[in-house]
TrEMBL record:
The chain crosses the membrane at residues 12-34. The lineage of its organism: Bacteria, Bacillati, Cyanobacteriota, Cyanophyceae, Oscillatoriophycideae. The keyword Transmembrane helix applies. Keywords: Membrane, Transmembrane, Transmembrane helix. This is Oxidoreductase FAD/NAD(P)-binding domain protein. It comes from Microseira wollei NIES-4236.
Length: 54
């Protein structure tokens, strides 16, 4: 594993991009799992999700 990290900067870049996507998309996945509150609408939930990404 160590030699792969030293020889392939593409592998390191793919790992960083994957970590970034995981961290940014995790709140969206959590919003999909839990049911929405009754008093909030779709647009408010969408704006909160976009705020997590931003």
């Amino acid at each position: 594993m160590q030699s792969l990290l030293m020889r392939s900067p593409i592998f390191v870049a793919v790992c960083w991009i994957g970590a970034y996507l995981f961290i940014t998309l995790l709140p969206l996945l959590l919003l999909l799992i839990y049911p929405p509150f009754e008093d909030r609408g779709f647009w408010l939930d969408l704006s909160v999700a976009l705020g997590f990404i931003g």
